[in-house]
Amino acid sequence: MSEIDYTKYRLKPESEIRETFKEVSSIFIISCKKCYKEFEIEAEPEYDKLLELLGEERSKISGCAEFDFLCNSYLTKKKLTDLDISNVETIGVISCGIGVQFVAQELEGKRVLTLCDSVPQSGNATSVTGYHGISLGLEKCAGCGQCYLNITGGICPVIDCAKGLLNGPCGGAKNGKCEVDPQVDCAWEKIYLRLKGQGRNLPGEVKLRDYGKFKVDERNRISLFTQTRRMQNFYGGLYPLERKEETENLSIEAFPEPEHVVVFLSQHTGSPAHSLVKPGSMVKMGQKIGESSGLISASIHASISGKVLSIEERIHPSLLKPSLAIIIENDGLNSVDSSVEPVSDLENVSKESLLELLKEKGIVGLGGAMFPTHVKLCPPKPVDTLVVNGCECEPYLSADNRVMIEHPDSILKGIKIVQKILEAKNIIIGVEENKSGAIGKLKGLDSSPDVTVASLKTKYPQGAEKMLVKKLLDRQVPEGGLPLDVGVVVLNVSTILAIYQAIYEGLPLIQRVITISGEGLKRKGNFLIRIGTPIEDIIDLCFDGNREKFLEEYQIKMGGPMMGILQEDLNSAVIKGTTGFTILRKYPVEVSEERECIKCGRCVEVCPMELYPLYYAYYGKKEMWEEALKYNVENCIECGCCDYICSSKINLLSFIKKAKRYAYNKAKG
């Protein structure tokens, strides 16, 4: 039995079909039994699927007729005359575009609606040479994947127009003929006349789709350009729309103090902290309320002063499962704990004391991973280079950029603290070239000669540690290894600022700068925000709409659109690893359902870790996790490039995370 299905059409998304049926009171269905498909069943399932998804709306169907090879004009024309449809105003067609066009032509006085989208099978979608079906007639179908025949009276504006006129309007027909090809009738005039005969008009707005073709030399130029960029800085990666211009020039401002905070006891890689307070306790800002509970752990502090209302489970914004959090009610006094005091004699403080201070202040990596900084700065191997990561390659986010622009002196002082701890000889600050303001500020500092500011080509995910080390130092981090294996420690620029604040100001990690950006917002920007601020407060301040309907119409990710974590509970809160929140509108219709992998290889071409992500989906669907491990899934940095580029819309990251979890559990025994 062949596993290849050359079916030429599939039912439109349920939401689109329901919208279509809202417009009609009665409809007769004509269905094609398909062609170029292994003959296993006599009746195809689409009509039954249609009835199932319509529910009560199925009562609008006045009848149905099935045809073998609907596009066979000679036989179909005879069968159409035998149908009792003289009183029917609307015909719904289940077939590819060729069948729809033929029925619309034969039943010109009736409204003909397509209930399917044609599927390209020739590998030449949207090209007139890509038509299919057995008909020898004039009708063709380019297999666009989204059929417009519903609104054009069954005349295809892609195939029948010499200009493929979904590109936009032309200069007008000349005597009913196309201005490009005088031998061809103007498709749009034909569409207009057919709709007029049915008492219909074109909709006021039609989303244009560009089916223009590149010239050969232009295509070659773009191909060469793409190949060059593919290898720029590192293998793979992407160039997504940055959208940083929306916030990159907005200065950091203080986010309004929350009425209460939700301070999770797990705000770092490793073991959660143990609570040091009980409900009813009064706490001050900067007071330690959670004690680190192991080697890989970090302390937690109160970000406001007030009363501990409860210690309860809330949905963690990173783990996405219930996790203990301390709920504190703000008393509005901003009483500061006595422990918040700067180091008085920094020159004479040992590196061991500095490490203990960073541990006490709860400093963790602020690039998103949240690894305890005091552990990272105590490497088991010699380190000669500190790399400060100022790339911030995620679209929309600009918090690190503003930190570099507005606090360059503090960053330099923070670097000197880390340099003293690590005894590193070389310091490199890596910044993507799209942050020219930050590069200028950092280079303008009167820094020591061992500090270098490196401008890097903008490319995602440039900010990944292994990418930075390879580009800046030409050192290859071994598989399963860390930068320290090649003598390097990498710290995010906001982590450096937090280190400065901990030592020079005595401030524990109770606040950070985040970006709030995206769509549907009345207020965007870069905000200095308290750890534990509820997501609800962010929506209330920034969202331009009804919060009650927010999750119905929008999605919110903690982080950027590439690696951000989708939030479905607005009762969660900001944690130390929150780099920002990106709010985007949900698609009004289902753009594309997940399909089977076709081994196009695009995921392999964009993987910066030089992995083969297609195997994670292949073995993941079979739950053969042991096989997935053979393809080095543990080396994946979860940058999302494979998800972004996948032509079958497979959620590759979900399989990757499951495979990694399997590997972790296997290692634990």
Describe the structure.
It contains 20 helices and 23 strands. The strands form 6 sheets. The chain has a 6-stranded mixed beta sheet. Helix 7 (351-360) crosses helix 10 and helix 10 (408-422) packs across helix 13. The model is unreliable at 122-131 (pLDDT under 50). It is α/β, with parallel strands linked by helices. It folds into 4 domains: 9-197, Rossmann fold (3-Layer(aba) Sandwich), CATH 3.40.50; 247-339 and 509-585, no CATH class; 346-504, NADH-ubiquinone oxidoreductase 51kDa subunit (Rossmann fold, 3-Layer(aba) Sandwich); 602-668, no CATH class. The longest helix has 17 residues, at 652-668. The chain is elongated, with a radius of gyration of 31 Å.
Give a brief outline of the structure.
The chain is α/β, with parallel strands linked by helices and 669 residues long.
Number of helices: 20
* Global mean pLDDT: 87
The gyration radius over C-alpha positions equals: 31 Å
Main-sheet strand order equals: 7-20-19-23-21-22
Topology:
Elements: E1 9-11, H1 14-22, E2 27-32, H2 46-54, E3 61-67, H3 73-82, E4 90-94, H4 97-106, E5 111-114, E6 116-118, H5 187-197, H6 216-230, E7 252-254, E8 260-264, E9 274-275, E10 282-283, E11 288-291, E12 300-301, E13 306-315, E14 322-330, H7 351-360, H8 373-376, E15 385-389, H9 399-406, H10 408-422, E16 426-432, H11 436-443, E17 451-456, H12 465-473, E18 488-492, H13 493-504, E19 511-518, E20 525-530, H14 535-542, H15 550-553, E21 554-558, E22 565-567, E23 580-585, H16 602-606, H17 614-621, H18 625-629, H19 641-645, H20 652-668
Parallel strand pairs: 2-3, 2-4, 4-5, 7-20, 15-16, 15-18, 16-17, 19-23
Antiparallel strand pairs: 1-6, 8-14, 9-11, 10-13, 11-12, 13-14, 19-20, 21-22, 21-23
